[in-house]
Amino acid sequence: MQKTVNEGVVICCDFCHTEWDGQSGMVEGHHGSAICLSCLDRALRDKKRTDGKYACTLCLRVNMPASMDRWSHPDRPEVLVCEECLYQAAKAMSRAAHVDWQWKGPGA
Ligand SMILES: [Zn+2]
Ligand SMILES: [Zn+2]
Fold first, then answer.
1. How far apart are CA 31 and CA 38, in angstroms?
2. Which of 8, 26, 41, 74 has an alpha carbon 20 to 30 Å from 15's alpha carbon atom?
3. Is the pLDDT of residue 11 over 90?
């Protein structure tokens, strides 16, 4: 998400609301949404299947099937991300030269 502060607009993680410092790992989704490296890492480990359809914050698709794994930050259970976005973000994060992190799971 984007936040307006005195210095202008900053990007912050939609899940933990950490402001991006311009250096650390951050992957942007649609409409200014973003996920930081620590949330991504955690999400890839903790994502799970639950009942009911949902909407994904990063790809903005609604009616995501219950069979697709999802993740949300414990502080914000209503902000969800789908498994496809997590894999896509993981690949993008692995390619980011300045980020010392490698994805070794599906799609790597
Ligand atoms: Zn985060
Ligand atoms: Zn998604």
1. 21
2. 8
3. yes
